[in-house]
Structure formats: C-alpha cells, structure tokens
Amino acid sequence: MYTTTARFHFSSVVLSSLCIMITAAPSGAQDAVIDELKKQMAEMQATVKKMAERIEHLEKEKAATTGAPPAAEPQVPASTVGAAAAKGIVNTFNPAISVNALFGGGYSSRPETTRQLTNPDFHNGFNFQEAEFQFTADVDPYWKANFILAVDRAGNAEIEEGYVTSERLPYDLLPRDTSLKLGRFFAGFGKHNLLHAHQFPFIDRPLINQAVFGDEGLKEPGLGLSYLLPTGWFSELTFQGVAGENESLFRSGEESKRRGAYLGRWKNFFDVSDSTTLELGNSYIAGRNSDAGHRLSQAIGFDLTMKWRPLRQATEKGLIWQNEYIYFSRERERDPSSRGGGLYSSLQYQFARNWWIQGRYDLLGIPKLDDGRKNRWTTLLALVPSEFSALRLQHSYTTQSRGKSVNEILLQMNFTIGSHPAHQY
User: Fold this and answer.
1) Can you tell me the distance from the alpha carbon of 210 to that of 198, in angstroms, rounded to the nearest whole number?
2) How far, in whole angstroms, is CA 27 from its chain's centroid?
3) What CATH topology corresponds to 98-418?
4) Quick one: CA dihedral 369, 370, 374, 380, positive or negative?
5) What does the longest C-alpha to C-alpha distance in the chain come to?
6) What is the pLDDT of residue 92?
7) 343-375 pLDDT, tens per residue?
8) Helix, strand, or coil here: 369?
9) Which of 300, 308, 302 lies closest to 278, judged by CA?
10) Integer Cα distance of 186 and 160 in angstroms
11) Higher pLDDT residue, 280 or 245?
C-alpha cells in the first residue's frame, strides 16, 4: 500500500508529465489539449487527495488497534522518479508496433491453375509469403493513425494501408455517432475484403473474391464516413468515395483513377442470445472502367455471419458460420458486358482450447462466367497456441466445367510479435 509521501511523488510526476504534453502539442490544437488536460488534472488531484486521506485514516485505526506506530514511509530517490517520468513521456508519444510474418509450403497437382484461381504467386515447395509491419498511434485528441507496410518474399515493399480515423473534430464539425476515415484502406465491401492475409479464416481467399477484386483485394485511396443509426440494435451505414484503381474490377488506367468509384454498405448486428450473435450486411460499389468508352463497372454483395461462443467455455468452444455472395458486371464497348457471380459458405469450429477444424464450399459462376463454373471444397485443421501464433494445414479440391480438377495441400505458420490492434470481429 502506498503511503502519503509516495502518493505525493506520484502526483508530482503525473502533473509534470501533463505540463510537458501541453508544451509539446501542436499550436493549432493547444487550446483543446489544455482544456482536456486541465480537466484530467483536476480529477487526478481530487482522487489523490481522497486516497491520501483514506490511507491516513487506516493507518490511525491500525495504530489504535495494535499499539504499533505507523510504518515508516519509504524514500524514493528523485533520480528514479525523474527517469520513470521521462520514460513514460517517451512511451506516450511512441506508436504501437507489431510485425506479422507468414511462412508456407504447399503442393498443387496443377500449379498453373492454382495461380489463376487464388494465388498468383504459388509455387510447389516451401516459401516465405509476406511480412507486415504495423504502426498505430494517436495523432492528437482528434485523430488516430494506422500504417501497415507489407514486404513480399522478393523483398518488394508497399503501403498495404495508411489512414487516419476520427470520431470527433473541433467545433463539433463531425456529427454525433459519425466516424471519418481518410487515406488508403481496404474498402468496406462485404466481410472477407476487409481482412489482411494473416487474418484470413483459411489460407487462401474465396474464389469469388479473387475473381472480382484480384489478388490484392479492393484497397483504395479515398475517404469514408460511417454513421451509427439510432436503432435498438447495432446498425451502421458506410459511404466511401475511392480512387477506382482496382485492376480487376475497373481495369484501372490513369483516366479511371481520376473518375473514381463510390461505395455504400449497410451492416446490422443482433444479439440472438447471450452466446450467439448474427450479422447481416449488403454492399455496393460502382465506377467507370478504363476500357474504351469508360463504361460502368459495379459489384453488389450480401453477407451473413453467425457466431456462437458459450459463456462458461469461452476459451474452449466456438463456432463461426460465414456466408457471402457477390455479383459483378463490367460493361465493354464491343461486348454488352462481362458479368458473373459466386458465393462461399464456411464453418469454423473450435473443439478444444487450442484446436480448430474448418470447412468451406466455394461456387464460382452463378450466373455463369465466360470460363464456366468452378466448385471448391476446402478443409483445414489449425493449432492455435495463442492469438499471436497459428499452425494450419489445409486441403482443397477444385472442379471446373472447362478444365481439369485440382488437388492442393497447404501448410502455413502465422505469427505476430509486438502490440497489435484487435482483429475485425
């Protein structure tokens, strides 16, 4: 238990740190920072005073009961307090940093087909897949920044995502229950498109996501607004204006980048019971493509996700049922359009503290694509010692109406070091 003197030292260190933070704030945000810190300072002073009075009262009661004098107050060297304060100040302004790495091995009976379906960089044998470096920090009282740098096995680096988010701005410029997102990010289309490679439920992405958005997914520079509707359940509307540079959907060129694309998503989340939740969502995106005439490219999607986790066995049992359908069309000058659709349905079951067994069915070609229909059945076994590591073994079998069937076996080691934000729910 801290004594009164120790509490005084703690209060002095905190107050000194707050003064330094005020001085270090950008000039344009100093007024807001000062008001916020003054409020926090007053609350801390009142709390410390009450705690000191309570400690003194308890020590007097103990002395009256036992007849022993109060314990001597420990002396904390000033140099130690100063060093701790300086370290705390430095850590406050440093971003949280994490590194994720993916190592894999695999065998495909037809590697060239695997590269066309879901993994353009696939080769039989063992491979380093990629590493991601993530940096997250508060910019000031209004903005939070998140940057992710991805490095592939050839050593090529790119900004996977780099954006800032805000839920309030000075002078109440941002309406209540509204959030703002600005930068380069995975567009809010459906469920799977929001995930980085190390967050995939399976080792590869679904067939329909690969067919519509390509191997990099739908990630775009742009701006987005999300509004939480005043309903009795979680209901959120998201609108995003993006560059429209996706090479698969928009066949991007410089002209199409300037024209842009526009996205809307409506997500609803329900508590079915204490252990079960249900999420329903639909998404739409449209923009001009770079084919002659700059005709319309668009996609619409529907998703349903159910999650079950019993309260008394939350670390040992769990079930996730996820479904998504996407339809897309690309209008062309000579052909009326290139259109198609597909779906996947996956089931993930945690049957022990560190073990998962999973299955997924993919159907590509409803309505039919130019190269016919494809069916894929996938099973996966995962050993997950903690949230920071996972070892996964996957088998998939794909049939094609225009082509031979493909067998694949994939093994992946996925690990993360450092402080990283929570994954998408």
Assistant:
1) 16
2) 32
3) Porin (2.40.160)
4) negative
5) 99
6) 63
7) 999 999 999 999 999 999 999 999 878 778 999
8) coil
9) 308
10) 9
11) 280
**Which residue in this structure is represented by tokens 């009282």?**
141
Whether the CB-CB separation of 324 and 303 falls below 8 Å is answered with: yes
Alpha helices in 179-274 (DSSP H): 207-213, 254-259
Amino acid at 177: D
- Amino acid identity of residue 191, one-letter, is K
Domain ranges in the chain?
4-92, 98-418
Q: Is the pLDDT of residue 420 over 80?
A: no
* CB 134, CB 164: distance < 8 Å: no
Residue type, 332: R
Q: What does residue 8 show for φ and ψ, rounded to 5 degrees?
A: -65, -45
Rg (alpha carbons) of the chain, rounded to whole number:
27
Q: Whose structure tokens read 């739908």?
A: 218
Contact 329, 294 (CB under 8 A): no
Distance CA 44, CA 327 (A): 55
Q: What sign results for the dihedral spanned by CA atoms 221, 227, 228, 234? A: negative
Question: Which residue pairs, CB below 8 angstroms and at least 24 apart, start in 53-56?
Answer: 55/1, 55/2, 55/3, 55/4, 55/7, 56/4
Residue 7's pLDDT is 42
Residue 57 corresponds to which tokens in the numbers above? 């009262």
Structure tokens at 272: 């079915």
